[in-house]
Design brief:
The chain is an alpha+beta fold. 46% of the residues lie in helices and 16% in strands.
């Protein structure tokens, strides 16, 4: 398929990359942040449509290829994401667990974007397929956790034809309006608000976290009064989903609080199950960098929370998550032990279990 092109591995380079890259006939612009250097294209990458290869020494590698989509390449982004997920799970040496897919977050204004990431020991391997004006742009990368933020910044710097080179700036009033529209009765208005917030990226995080905290406090007040406000829970669901789309590690505490809210509200609200699934999915999107903070709260007395976090660690993968799941094999709660046992099959590691 069009996106199953040659994989770029971290290596040595001698050529420094200038401020940007303009490429014909499939033009794009890439404002390259400091620290990244250009690598000569290998013959296999050139043959696969490779246009540029970069490295952040010792931390990350990145390449872009482009060309007409192969005939068998699905135009539908969900189908492409599933194809990439299968490829990464079975075609990338050293992969751990299932690949994580994202078909929600636009890149450079284009919505027809499929992304899949998979954990590899201490790092991540990923692919992004963008179909824009009849051309498929494929971004492939590997990064260690120390290079995650630089890799995400590089992806945000990628610009398609007809899109302004500089990232748009979102003023506070625009972001505040988008937050308010998340609770509109009009689903189209909610979708537009979500698109604004995800397009704003890190600019949206402070006001989004403030709104999440307000929802948390309202839910906790309702629980203290012996009731669960369904509207507040669903409002939190919408915000949690966007936090997952932003893939910003600073969202971990808020997402863990959302898991706690969901666990506490399960007895009084069916919507809490939706919140729990949304918070788990968002944490999984953040990947291995979220694992240390999750592991720190595994000693919670709530079996519901421990079980949910075990599910998250299974979805994240990586060595830290696997080691934590081994310990959960001896958890006093049967449901938690069952998650750890299923994880052992996914990651092909042996675990100890108490006699129950």
């Amino acid at each position: 398929m069009g996106f199953l092109r040659g994989l770029l591995r971290i290596g040595n380079t001698t050529t420094r990359q200038p401020a940007g890259n303009s490429d014909n006939p499939h033009e794009f612009f890439l404002a390259i942040p400091p620290g990244w250097v250009r690598k000569p294209l290998t013959s296999s990458l050139k043959a696969a449509g490779g246009r540029i290869a970069l490295i952040l020494p010792g931390r990350a590698s990145f390449n872009i290829s482009s060309g007409p989509p192969d005939q068998q390449t699905p135009h539908d982004k969900c189908e492409r994401a599933e194809e990439m997920k299968r490829f990464l799970r079975h075609g990338v040496p050293g992969s751990l667990g299932e690949a994580i897919v994202d078909v929600v977050t636009p890149i450079s204004g284009e919505e027809n974007v499929a992304r899949a990431d998979i954990a590899m020991g201490r790092g991540v391997h990923g692919m992004i397929s963008i179909i824009h004006r009849g051309t498929e742009y494929v971004l492939q990368y590997e990064f260690l956790e120390s290079g995650r933020s630089q890799l995400e910044s590089l992806i945000r710097a990628f610009r398609l034809p007809g899109v302004e080179e500089d990232s748009p700036r979102f003023d506070l009033s625009t972001l505040a309006d988008a937050i308010a529209q998340l609770d509109s009765q009009d689903p189209n208005a909610r979708d537009r608000a979500r698109n604004v917030l995800t397009a704003a990226g890190p600019q949206a995080l402070p006001i989004l976290l403030s709104s999440v905290n307000a929802c948390n406090q309202a839910i906790m007040s309702g629980l203290a009064a012996g009731s669960g406000d369904k509207r507040e829970i669903l409002a939190l669901v919408r915000r949690v989903e966007i936090l997952g789309d932003l893939r910003d590690i600073r969202a971990v505490p808020a997402l863990l609080n959302a898991v706690g809210d969901a666990a506490g509200a399960q007895a009084v609200s069916d919507e809490a199950r939706i919140l729990l699934q949304s918070a788990k999915a968002a944490l999984i999107k953040l990947g291995p960098p979220a694992a240390p903070a999750i592991i720190k709260v595994l000693d919670t007395p709530s079996a519901i929370i421990r079980c949910a976090l075990a599910d998250v660690l299974t979805g994240i993968g990586g060595l830290e998550a696997i080691n934590a799941l081994r310990h959960l094999a001896d958890d006093p709660d049967a449901a938690v032990r069952d998650v750890a046992n299923r994880a052992s099959s996914s990651f092909e590691f042996s675990i100890r279990r108490q006699d129950s």
